[in-house]
Structures are given as structure tokens and as C-alpha cells.
Design goal:
The structure is a single chain. The chain is an alpha+beta fold and about 400 residues long. The protein has a domain at about 1-110: Beta Polymerase, domain 2, CATH 3.30.460.10. It contains 18 helices and 11 strands. The radius of gyration is 26 Å and the shape is elongated. The protein binds cytidine-5'-triphosphate. Cytidine-5'-triphosphate binds near residues 7, 21, 92, 133 and 137.
Length: about 400
């Protein structure tokens, strides 16, 4: 039997990009031989084994043929006679279809090295269409390697368009869509993922709520970039630039969904878009089955982002109620994430990318102030419901002092 390193590890090694996983393909072996050597079988669908010590994945060379709709509509053939070339031709991209043997010899039957040099994400063969998830994978690779200058090849984009139109994407499970999307969101150029999905028509299928933002105008005096879709992508770029968490990036992505629902006669104003956004944000989160904390932040940012922008002028009582709705006493980390997302929204505007956002420090200070006031600091004669009332009174008073100090500083 012969063993080859394949897939992402070969690609990233040639690119000088860090990689964490090693996948191997085994040619000329049977499952029985693998088991006899101590490999552990994994996965119901494919003949994949884990190395007894390194736990790296070893897959028997296989050919695949699609026999039905969706991800499970596969028949595969694996046998000792399947060649390396047959295994590689069914892979997604030429740059992912290279193999390296123990001696360091590179096998590149489908031009992967040339496409690496030309910075092209190009499919290997028509077998690409056998797995619709590849549309999302290619968009994710486009996001990951954007800084290196990679583009999707024209003929691959065509194929992705056909897949998006075919209805195949609808057969993807929410778990697989969220896995690709959450990984893409953590790339430095996450916006490219959504741009590529849009370019091939997949955004409309997977995230119609986001797709609907394109072509919707905003007031140019506030949003010189005008288009709501462009603003969303610019805000996401800011979240990447800040190296913010997945929850912040996802909340930024969804913060303005309500703008796609503004009645036409009200454009380019978007009064009430925060309230209108709550339903589509909920729908996206439920469809993708995102974790609860991810959904909660997305809803809070959608609902309250204007309040954060107005923080410097809010009355102390209003600021307190905002902080309370954000669960400031129990969830300070969520308030921090909320502030980060709002800052991305503010800077995600043409020409305003580097603008100061003093609201961020102000709301952080406000959070510290209200959190520092505790029940044990109250006089001992305060009892029962009076405790709660007095705490609120003290917190609002402290916010009032903070506001005055801030305003004084502004006048100096
Ligand atoms: N592969 C494929 N089609 C898929 C998934 C995987 O052709 N839908 C092939 C590709 O050759 C890929 C390899 O299996 O390179 C390993 O897949 P995976 O580990 O999922 O991805 P990587 O390419 O290693 O990329 P990443 O760095 O994102 O893990």
C-alpha cells in the first residue's frame, strides 16, 4: 500500500500558510489490512480510519458517484485498485487535489501548482457538482486567501451558479451551512465569503434576508456608501479588523436586516428598522440553529444599536434602562461585545472608517459605574423592596455624575 498526504496540508504547505490538520489517502489497501495494522475505523459513510498514534485521518482511495439528492445521495466505490488520480479527480479544487508522498515527491495531475501560482480557485472536474457544500467552501477559501490575491475561476463561478439555481443548496443541513459560515466569519476577509455567495446566486438561497439589503438606499448624509448591503459588508470588515469574536461578527452581519423591510415610500429613511429587524434576525438564527448566546447578542445589537450611537446624549435613566436590558449586572461580557458591534456599525461607512467612537468608552465607563454599586454598600436600615429601588436611584445618580464629568471634559 502507498500513503500520501493530501488536501489542505499540501496546499497550505506550498502556500506557506499555517495548517493544523493532516489528511492522508491510502492507495492499494483494503479495510481489513487497515484494521490489521491497528487503524481505528471512523464514519459510517466513508472508509476513513484514524492512525493508532497520531490520530490523523487516513482515507482509502475512493471514487464517488452521486445517486440522489442531497448530501447522503452518494454511492462510493473503494477498492485496492482505485488509483491516486481517480481519488484526486473527485476533489473540489485543483489546489486541494495534490498529494505528497513520504519522499517528498509531489503528485499534481490536475494543475494545482499552476493555479496556486495564478491565484485561482478552480474546480478539478464536473464531479465538483456532487457536493453542493462546495459552493460554500469555495466562498470560504476566497475569504481566507483574499489577501494573497486568490479569485474564483470564471468556469468555477459558472458551475457554482448552476448549483445555486438547481435547488441543491436547499438540501444542505443547517449544521453544515452554519459550520462553513461560522468558519468563514472568522477569516480576516469574511465579507468576501458573502460577496462570492452573492456573485453566484447562493446568498439569495441561503441568506435571503441579507441578499435583500442590496439595492436598498440609505440617506447619503449618514451613509455615504448609500447601499445597505455595502454598509453591512463594510461593518463586517470593521469586525474583522478589530479581530472580534464570532458572536460580534455575526451580530454585525445581521444588525440592519430590518432595513430591507422599510416601506418603499419611506426610503431612504429607515425609521423603526431596529424593531423590524427582530423577526428576520430571529428567523436566520433559528434556521441556522446558532448557539443561544450568539442569537441573544444578534438580537440585542439589532434592537439597540441606535441607542448606543446616541449614548452621549441619553438621559441617565434611559442609559440605565439600556444597560439593564443588556443584562449588565450578570453579563458584562455581553455588554462589551454589544459595544464592539455598535462601533463596527458606526465605522462601517464610506470615509468614516477611522472615525472616533467615544460612545464605546462612555458606555464601558457607565457599565463599571453601575456595577460598582452593590447592595452591601447601602445603609443597614434599608430593607426589602427598598433595596432594589435605592440601588436603581444610586446607579442613575452615578450615571448622572458620569455624564456631567464627560460634558465638562468636552468643554475644556
Ligand atoms: N474535500 C472535497 N470536497 C469537500 C470536502 C473536502 O473535495 N466537500 C477534499 C479536498 O481535497 C480537501 C480535503 O478533502 O482539501 C480535506 O478536506 P477538509 O479537511 O475539509 O478541508 P481542507 O482543504 O483541509 O481545508 P481547511 O484548511 O479549511 O480544513
Amino acid at each position: 500500500m502507498q500513503v500520501y498526504l493530501v488536501g489542505g496540508a499540501v496546499r497550505d504547505r506550498l502556500l506557506g500558510h499555517p495548517y493544523h490538520e493532516k489528511d492522508y489517502v491510502v492507495v492499494g489497501a483494503t479495510p481489513q489490512q487497515m484494521l490489521a495494522q491497528g487503524f481505528q475505523p471512523v464514519g459510517k459513510d466513508f472508509p476513513v480510519f484514524l492512525h493508532p498514534e497520531t490520530k490523523d485521518e487516513y482515507a482509502l482511495a475512493r471514487t464517488e458517484r452521486k445517486s440522489g439528492h442531497g448530501y447522503h445521495g452518494f454511492e462510493f466505490y473503494t477498492g485496492a485498485s482505485v488509483t491516486l488520480e481517480q481519488d484526486l479527480i473527485r476533489r473540489d479544487l485543483t489546489i486541494n487535489a495534490m498529494a505528497l508522498d513520504d519522499d517528498g515527491t509531489l503528485y499534481d495531475p490536475y494543475g494545482g501548482q499552476q493555479d496556486l501560482a495564478q491565484r485561482l480557485l478552480r474546480h478539478v472536474s464536473d464531479a465538483f457538482a456532487e457536493d453542493p457544500l462546495r459552493v460554500l467552501r469555495i466562498a470560504r477559501f476566497a475569504a481566507r486567501y483574499k489577501a494573497l490575491g486568490f479569485k474564483v475561476a470564471d468556469e468555477t463561478l459558472q458551475l457554482m451558479k448552476q448549483l445555486a439555481q438547481s435547488g441543491e443548496l436547499e438540501a444542505l443541513t443547517p449544521e453544515r451551512v452554519w459550520k462553513e459560515t461560522s468558519r468563514a466569519l472568522m477569516e480576516d476577509h469574511a465579507d468576501e465569503y458573502f460577496e462570492v455567495l452573492r456573485a453566484c446566486g447562493a446568498l439569495k438561497v441561503l441568506f435571503p434576508e441579507l441578499d435583500a439589503l442590496y439595492g436598498v438606499p440609505q440617506r447619503p448624509e449618514y451613509h455615504p456608501e448609500i447601499d445597505c448591503g455595502i454598509h453591512t459588508m463594510m461593518s463586517l470588515q470593521q469586525a474583522c479588523r478589530g479581530n472580534y469574536s464570532l458572536d460580534v461578527r455575526f451580530a454585525v452581519l445581521l444588525h440592519d436586516l430590518g432595513k430591507a423591510l422599510t416601506p418603499k415610500e419611506e426610503l431612504p429613511r429607515h425609521i423603526m428598522h431596529e424593531q423590524r429587524g427582530l423577526q428576520p434576525v430571529t428567523e436566520v438564527c433559528e434556521r441556522m440553529r446558532v448557539p443561544t448566546h450568539t442569537k441573544q447578542l444578534a438580537l440585542a445589537v439589532c434592537k439597540e444599536h441606535l441607542k448606543c450611537h446616541q449614548a452621549l446624549t441619553l438621559k441617565p435613566g434611559t442609559l440605565w434602562r439600556l444597560l439593564q436590558r443588556l443584562d449588565v449586572l450578570r453579563r458584562p461580557e455581553r455588554v462589551e461585545a454589544f459595544i464592539q458591534a455598535c462601533e463596527c456599525d458606526s465605522r462601517g461607512r464610506l470615509g468614516l472608517e477611522n472615525r472616533e467612537y467615544p460612545q464605546a468608552q462612555y458606555v464601558l465607563d457607565a457599565m463599571q459605574v453601575v456595577r460598582s454599586i452593590k447592595a452591601q454598600d447601602l445603609p443597614p436600615d434599608i430593607q426589602g423592596p427598598d433595596i432594589g429601588e435605592m440601588l436603581i436611584e444610586k446607579r442613575i445618580k452615578a450615571l448622572s455624575a458620569l455624564k456631567q464629568a464627560f460634558e465638562l471634559q468636552q468643554t475644556i
